[in-house]
Design brief:
By secondary structure, the protein is α+β, with helices and mostly antiparallel strands. The chain contains 5 helices and 6 strands, in the order H-H-H-E-E-H-E-H-E-E-E. The chain is 28% helix and 26% strand. Strands 5-4-3-6 form a 4-stranded antiparallel β-sheet. It has a two-stranded antiparallel sheet with strand order 1-2. A hairpin with a 2-residue loop joins strand 4 and strand 5.
Length: 165
């Protein structure tokens, strides 16, 4: 690829972003590998400096690259600590980053509704709810613990679920 379409509107779909993203998540590039300079990319792919900076900013926000003052741009250590400030949308976020997502059920059973949970579900405190505690993993690394309390009659088979691939 010698020239990149500068008219690509979405940075997530921009050929430069796709190329770097794919190189990183496919392990063509390893953590700590130095990326070409912005100037080199501008020259090589005939894109504007703003486009290169915006693509790099997007990759930084995804946790795939990091910048070091006066040191350059490097492939980040994608052991998942970068950019995981929000847990909501775990599945989509893990897939977007190219990680294998899995969930392991730690507890599945009946549990009395705590007062705060009962109020939100509009049931009596102490009512038996189906509770599930799940460990969310990305590439086998623990990311979050989710606890769900569900009204059993709405999801009768939920207690049978042991693992989500």
């Amino acid at each position: 690829m010698d020239k990149v379409d500068a008219n690509s509107r979405s940075l997530l779909n921009h050929p430069l972003h796709e190329m770097f993203h794919n190189e990183i998540v496919s392990s063509e590039l390893s953590a700590g590998d130095r990326r070409a300079t912005e100037f080199d990319l501008i020259e090589r792919y005939s894109v504007s400096p703003l486009t290169v900076r915006r693509v790099f900013d997007t990759l930084v926000s995804e946790g795939l690259i990091c910048r070091q003052a006066w040191g350059g741009t490097f492939v980040a250590h994608t052991s998942l600590e970068h950019g995981w400030s929000r847990i909501a949308g775990f599945t989509a976020d893990a897939q977007r980053r190219g990680f294998r997502r899995s969930t392991k059920v730690l507890f599945s059973g009946l549990a009395p509704a705590a007062k705060c949970v009962a109020g939100k579900l509009n049931v009596d405190a102490g009512e038996q709810l189906a509770r599930s505690d799940r460990l969310c993993l990305a590439n086998g690394e623990s990311m979050s613990l989710e606890q769900s309390s569900l009204i059993r009659e709405h999801v009768p088979d939920i207690l049978e679920l042991k693992e989500v691939p």
